[in-house]
Amino acid sequence: MDLESGLQATAAIAAATALGQVVTRRFPIPLPVFLLATGLLLGNDGLGVVRTDELSDFIGITLAIAVALIVFEGGTLLSVQTLRVLAPAVRNIVLLGLVITPLVGMIAVAVFLDFPWRVAALFGALVSVTGPSVITPLLRSVRVSDRLRAIL
To answer: Is the pTM for the entire model greater than 0.85?
Structure first.
């Protein structure tokens, strides 16, 4: 990977993110959905603008920085007092979600899309991973109660 390719990929991702911010504020599309579609369009199997197979080291570093920022922001938004009150609900959502979501995702992909069970299991595992980078934009686009917002 050369620096120029890394910078071009970063510029494409930044432009897609900026466009996503504009589009998702005007239309009822959650930002993660827009970014996922844009990633498919610009990625290896789409237009090939962002070639992740050639940029694995660069993307690894970029993702590490992004995850650090997301986790740090999440920590600044947490209220320990609210977390104590809502701990049982959070625990139940995490435990049930960790079991139900991958299973339902796996079965749906295997049965309805006729994917091999190993690929379906991988899909189920991938869609079950949800963090603040996905939840926060979704909460901005839908109205939920303050209690549910705090739990999520």
So the answer is: no
